[in-house]
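Hello Y.,

Per our agreement to keep a running log of every chain we model this quarter, I'm adding this entry. I've kept the format consistent with earlier entries: sequence first, then predicted structure.
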Amino acid sequence: MNGEFGTTAWGRDWVRLAEPTSVTRPDSRLPKARSLARREQVHEVALAPGTVTATVDGHHVRLSVPLWDNNILHSASEKLHGDDLPDAAHADLPPMGEIRADCDCTQRRNPCLHALATFYEVARRLDERPRLALVLRGLTTTAPARNATRIPLGLLDPATFYG
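Predicted structure for the entry above:
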């Protein structure tokens, strides 16, 4: 796996969708898919409960993500710290499950190049804001908006912040 995408457990799930460990030979489409995501060619990305939509090279991609039940979502949301979701919480939650990819392109392989690029873009976004992993699974409560460059001191616990 490339260190550029999937730097958190939440993002790695999406990199593994593009780069499954069960594949026995390299996929020649992966460098192009990573390049599309790296060069910000994945546009109009919208992450909502159960769905990711994006436009890649003029093609519309829709990913369907299985939703978790309310008990699992409640348990996961208790582990949230603002937008951050510790990697340790990842092991306590169900695996990714089956993701369905639909694209309006004519490529025969599924997932197509556009869906692969979208997987990488979602991985990058989840690395930046792990909370989105729960939103994709059905979390609908919104966290209070705040300036991303500053964290209010009241949200920090000095006993755990410094290790």
